[in-house]
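Help: read this over?
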Amino acid sequence: MAKVSKKRAAVNSKVEEGKLYSLDDAMNLVKQVNTTKFDASVDLHIRLGVDPKKADQALRGTVSLPHGTGKTKTVMVLCTPDKEEEAKAAGADHVGLDDLIQKVQGGWTDVDVVIAMPQVMAKVGRIGRILGPRGIMPNPKTGTVTPDVASAVAEVKKGKISFRVDKYGIIHTSVGRVSFEPKKLADNAMEVLSTINKMKPSSAKGTYMKSITIASTMSPGIKVDTKSIK
């Protein structure tokens, strides 16, 4: 255990306590302080000055990362039979309706994204209590309820992600992997931050972006100077 503690202490010492880093510096540093042997996720944690209990401040949306997520997402499409081949051709991993709904009801949820056509949503509602808590219930706001399932699948496969603010006013989202070049991580993060910035609710008072933290799986958090985000 002492060996791990020493390694952790050495890593922690690289992140100056109380220092606010530029986005580029933070992305360089997050690669240096990663201690995992696998290609860890690099995550962005944005604390906003919003009240998620108010409908207009419960932010959720999507963003297409310019350099993708570095992880192939498993996509399930719930659609009418005439759209099944289109969905499969676009790269969907699981396509169907009644059979898949039954499978989910039996406890299977091994997917990252669920896309559904508007006309099947009445049936999809049966599994809402299973998909909802996992954050994968199809929703028009995130483009996952759409008649054009093929385009939605293609966008997810290319790097489109969805995000939403949690009950504490924080958005947590991955912006790539530690194997990415720092510039690509910074580009992805900037795309997320500018999207969230444009979504500022008119009713939100005071500072909107309160804090931004970058961290990889099991690394210390690196605080980003919000003033450095243009």
